[in-house]
TrEMBL record:
Key words, A-Z: Hydrolase, One-carbon metabolism, Purine biosynthesis
Enzyme Commission designation: 3.5.1.10
Name of the protein in question: Formyltetrahydrofolate deformylase
UniProt-listed Pfam families: Formyl_trans_N (PF00551)
Domain ACT: 4-91
Purpose: Catalyzes the hydrolysis of 10-formyltetrahydrofolate (formyl-FH4) to formate and tetrahydrofolate (FH4).
CDD domains in UniProt: ACT_F4HF-DF, FMT_core_Formyl-FH4-Hydrolase_C
InterPro entries: ACT-like_dom_sf, ACT_dom, Formyl-FH4-Hydrolase_C, Formyl_transf_N, Formyl_transf_N_sf, PurU, PurU_ACT
Keyword Transcription regulation carried by entry: no
Source organism of this protein record: Pseudovibrio brasiliensis
Pathway: Purine metabolism; IMP biosynthesis via de novo pathway; formate from 10-formyl-5,6,7,8-tetrahydrofolate: step 1/1
Amino acid sequence: MSLILKMTCPDQPGVVADLSNRLNQNGCNILESSQFFQPEPGTKQEDGIGKFFIRMNLQPSGQTDRAALDATLDEFAEAFKAEISLDDTTRVIPTILMVSKFDHCLIDILYRVQTGKLPIEIKAVVSNHANSRADVERLGIPFYLWPVNKENKAEQEAKLDELIERTGAELVVLARYMQILSDQLSSKHFGKIINIHHSFLPAFKGAMPYNRAWERGVKHIGATAHYVTPDLDEGPIIEQDAERISHAETPADLVRRGQDVEARVLARALKLHAEGRVFIHGNRTVIFQQ
């Protein structure tokens, strides 16, 4: 068993030395360490004013006492004004998936979870359409059909909030869920809701974006996975990708290729999040790739 340690704090002398010493005293071997310093806007790297981020893969030994390790990390956090977490690498993230009619991202996630390629546990699937019910329920996953309209939007969001609480979900994935979440819900669960959308936004908002992109003669299509905030489609970006297309491709070709990009970008974003590789810093992210 190994552990993942994530820490961020104001940059200051002695952070790494103190943390490493505490880990050594508790019998933890550092297998992997990634770190990054982000200067505050308007300052230079050499000024040393900003945030420090570190992610470590630790191997405990027979002399490691988890309670003692947690206690010394709490002391470290207080001394350095740090935010710190420690998780078992085998832990899977309890997750709720949300989807509308287009199920390509949902099906891709289900496959990756079933084959052990994505460290999340799907507690439930919520949809405003019944299209995916059979694919979900045959895997023994609860499926909730909650149609949304102007009159019942608040009621349905309250049910979603209760489901998050009841299942202990730590992540909500909008796998092409075509409803806008309220500012209240987005703020309450900031950093725990991930969305996927085509990278044409904001140029091609609304219905049939691939058709309108084809009409404009675009030369690249892509997708963006980001954390949801009250600012629509402007949350911290986790992952992106794009593909070059040609004039010979039809709108249907763009849709097909776009869906492929969306599925793989979302899967990569979920893996990065679940493995504790993402730090949110304002409207940016610091990501330690594998």
